Amino acid sequence: MKVSFLNKIPGQQEVNDVILQNSVELTAGNLDRLMDKIGDARFVLLGEASHGTHEYYTWRAKISKKLIEEKGFSFIAVEGDWPDCYRVNRYVKNYSDAGENALEVLHQFNRWPTWMWANWEVVAFSEWLKKHNSRLPRQKQTGFYGLDVYSLWESLDAIINYLDKVDKRAKETALQAFRCFEPYADGEGQAYAQANYYMSSSCETEVVNLLKEIIKKLPQYNTDHEAVLSTEQNAYVIAGAEKYYRAMMRPGADSWNIRDHHMVDTLNRLVDFHGKNAKAVIWEHNTHIGDARATGMAGEGMVNVGQLLNEQYGDKVFSIGFGSYKGSVIAGRYWGDDMRIVKMPDAATGSWENILHQLDGKNRIVFMEKEVEKIIGQHHYGHRAIGVVYNPEYEQMGNYVPSIMPMRYNAFIYIDQTQSLHPLHIETNKRQMPETYPFGL
Length: 441
Description:
single chain; 441 residues; EreA/ChaN-like  fold; 2 domains; nine-stranded mixed beta sheet; 17 helices; 11 strands; globular
């Protein structure tokens, strides 16, 4: 069975014409056109159609470099864990004892799927960012932070280690939270989720007490200002993770929404930390950065980062989706599987990627101008989404998200043929992460 979206296409020639008239070939020189469209946006959201594609990372890096150099963006925020990404942040800002090189720092990312951030593409960008920052005073250096909610144990360890140095009394509050979670140490958060679901066992009180203690004591901590920020954020991660895992076993959109609300709340804290004129580049999957209201997610009660930021900041948000017609990708067959290079089938007939391929097969940037919205703004196109779990033989069963493209993104970067990422780790760490809807995005 071959999935098709032909029944959703308006006049095909009209669609082709409006795309050609509102797009440019994807070249380094034409990124200036993209910068013009971005204008004075404070949040630039750079997506990806998979978590394992080389070109998505390299083009996001090229765009981010221009945003940093030409528009003074304050930080990169990614779909990664806070503790791991905070180590990268300290490295690229040239803190002492932050690591000898980016390879060493990124090799410490050991949570499955390791390849998402432990890859040579991120090593190269991190080394560039370190060099860029070395010419600037600390307050003007560009940071690198993780937005996700999964790092329960790592964040607990980070807080306990920090408080052991600066506040041993508050450390006892952190240890109480640790002891509450300790019986569920195996299996990441799933064991806690199951215990909460079947036995109503909860660490919510201990987590809330820890968060209150940290927030109350923050003004007293006189270590470097980013270490204080990190301690506060780790407390919020623990609170978010506890809430996420508690909702995980319930049907519906709760756990997804908790996660994306957490990511937006983290962004807002980072903006506050960097000052009223702070500007952020966000690297996440299309399913997070493209406005959920333009997809079937809205009908399931789901929100996402793109929607929440659009609602809060309006035209100060600029979202760029990514996609390709064919190629290869790094993914696993199931959670915790060894990473593998997977060949993607050609995009489904009538899908957004198939339409762009049929034009002329050129890589291009499509700008979602009013003319595009007028022609295709009421039509849903299948738009491929590949997560860390991917089985191409079942692609037609759910790897296409019906999307109103001009409502979902401000621009779209199409690459006709892509190749897989270049991971640092050869073998996969078998520690499990909770599966998120849909397909590990």
